[in-house]
Design a protein that fits this description.
- This protein is of the alpha/beta class.
- It has three domains: about 5-90, Arc Repressor Mutant, subunit A (Orthogonal Bundle); about 100-160 and about 285-305, 3-Layer(aba) Sandwich (D-Maltodextrin-Binding Protein, domain 2), CATH 3.40.190; about 170-275, D-Maltodextrin-Binding Protein, domain 2.
- It has helices at about 10-20, 25-30, 35-50, 65-95, 105-110, 115-125, 135-145, 190-195, 205-215, 235-240, 250-260, 290-305, and strands at about 55-60, 60-65, 100-105, 130-135, 150-155, 160-175, 190, 200, 230, 245-250, 265, 270, 275-280.
- The strands form four sheets. Strands 3, 4, 5, 6, 10, 11 and 13 form a seven-stranded mixed beta sheet that branches.
- Strand 1 (about 55-60) and strand 2 (about 60-65) form a beta hairpin.
- Helix 1 (about 10-20) crosses helix 3 (about 35-50), helix 1 (about 10-20) crosses helix 4 and helix 6 crosses helix 12 (about 290-305).
Amino acid sequence: MPLPARVADLASYDVVLSVAELGSMGRAAAAHGVSQAAVSARVRALESALGFTLFERSPQGTRLTEAGGLVADWARSAIDAAWAMEEGVAALRAEHTGRLRVAASHTVAEYLLPRWLVSLRSELPDTSVALSTRNSTDVADDIRRGAADIGFVEGPEIRDDLDSQVVARDRLTLVVSPGHPWARRHGIDAARLAGTALLTREAGSGTREFLERALRSAGVETIAHPVLELASTTAIKGAVADGVAPAVLSSLAVAGELAAGTLVTVPIRKLSLDRRLTAIWPRGRPPDGAAAALLRRASTRSERRR
């Protein structure tokens, strides 16, 4: 049996509810991403189909009539039911096709995950992946609150409320522009590096935390404030190449620039900057399904590189 003609167009009733809640045709139009004329036309068409007026219009705004209020109450129940059905269908579809939520630090997301995900697709072609690129601190927070199924970080510490597995190894590299005075040196020591204002990532970045921890382990007590904090590794590399200041970045991130000669690496004497890149998940709840498959892919490729 077909739906009654007067209630078949739920989209128009949804517009009516927006006008009632927001108090004007213009604001409702903005909320729906359409013109005010389109909203007015929908309301007029619905009023014509129903046979009575839904709104009273005045300089103070647009308000529901008594009859319009009743219609809005009925419409709200129908629209809520429609959204509930949409969410149910979306959940069934996600269960059928598979959906993997991944949170990863910038280094892992930019330079390692693409290869892992291509490999995963050959095993699970129907799995859709939602990737959130964050700093390492925020990735850990996403895992704790259930916003991601698996995370990848580059920070020096894993808290006790998380389990982890090393999936790759990396080394931090001090880079400068070819014209920088350090580019002609055979190296600098940790104290000289710590006393220099660098270009860095924001607080919470795994790369920044690892460097600061390594410097303190080398006996450095004071670390200079950054000359500039940037949330993008690409932006940092550009600023280094322009001669703004040196930076310490992942060797994965600067390999192309070093090969092209736009950046120059400077050795740091007696400072260990080798680090591990790590997969994390909630303690006692090992990854399963697509998350476990991704972890296997990442670990296998890590083993091959050793």
